[in-house]
Design a protein that fits this description.
Elements: H1 4-26, H2 33-37, H3 39-60, H4 66-88, H5 98-125, H6 132-155, H7 164-185, H8 192-214, H9 223-250
Helix pairs in contact: 1-3, 3-4, 3-9, 4-5, 4-9, 5-7, 5-9, 6-7, 6-8, 7-8, 8-9
Amino acid sequence: MLQPRFHTIALGLCIIWAVLLTGGLAARVVDTSWLSAIETELKAGSSLVLVALSWAAATFAIRDWRPAATLIAAGMTLGCLGDASPLLGSLWPDPQRTLGNMVLFGLGHVAYIRAFCLIDRAQANQEKRPAIKIWYVSLVLWLVIGTVVWYFAAYLGPHHAVMRIPALAYTLLLSSTAGVAFGYALSNRLFALVAIGAILFLASDVLLAVWIFHDAVYRPFDLVWLTYGVGQMLIVVGSIRNLRALATLAE
């Protein structure tokens, strides 16, 4: 799938991502004023690196796998726009950023799900597709899990009642991503990284919901960004590994 020089680029970008994310998380732990001052920039920068990695993968991908790789890159780009929104301040059309970011991340997950389906179609040609009943069970299971966590994390929260229904729709979309990825992972171990990433992404938004609706504060460590950052990385890297393996089998 990928030319040899891509591996050098990918390794370098992964190292940069780890440094930036670690620095952003350390800003909450280390009492250093200069590090705290650039916390948002470091975290947004780590997302930007994943955007670069995903678009590099789409650029170097062979023709058959380019649509799926492009969709992964588009989903990561939309998420990065949401991550960077705090840096725009009043220039961002949604001052509270909640609804706007839900739309951006939601569209990103639509792109992820479509990419996963394209990968599944390739798996079907290689007789690796999971039984359709298992796939539906996985999807329904994660939708139920999403509904339950929404009930406790958002519906029972005393704050921002007007956001409960939008939060439900958003949670179900993220749960669908986890359900689709988990279903595919049942027959393809390489997809396990993607499934774990999707589950961590859902976990990060559950933590965020507890913060928003219950006014919980995560100190001194940013659990939301830890689960989110690692989740996004696993979705991108896991998808790249999966596409590469499919391309190798097709040769």
